[in-house]
Design a protein that fits this description.
alpha+beta, 4-stranded antiparallel β-sheet, 20% helix
């Protein structure tokens, strides 16, 4: 498999830990250079979070372990970029 450069995940997490803690923990993993977490929805006990991870060689199993260890679960992989460089999606005509 090629190197993962970018992942967009739909994550369901408990209210604690905060997205700041989750993002900091993910950023510390090998191959990850940046993480963006955006709260999409808040429920009584959970948050739906869009997690965008970028790096040189992201190891999905490490990402999954960090997310699971935070009490969260990956609901879906919404986007993935694999290869030597990131391909920008063009919008419009």
């Amino acid at each position: 498999m090629g190197q993962i450069k970018r992942l967009v995940l739909d994550v369901l997490k408990p209210l604690n830990p905060s997205i700041l803690v989750v993002a900091e923990t993910l950023t510390g993993a090998k191959g990850i250079t940046s993480v963006t977490c955006t709260i999409e929805e808040v429920d009584r006990e959970t948050e739906t979070v869009k997690v965008i991870i970028e790096g040189n060689d992201i190891i999905f199993s490490s990402v999954e372990k960090i997310i699971n260890d935070s009490g969260s679960v990956i609901r879906s992989i919404d986007s993935v970029t694999i290869g030597k460089k990131h391909v920008e999606e063009k919008t419009g005509r």
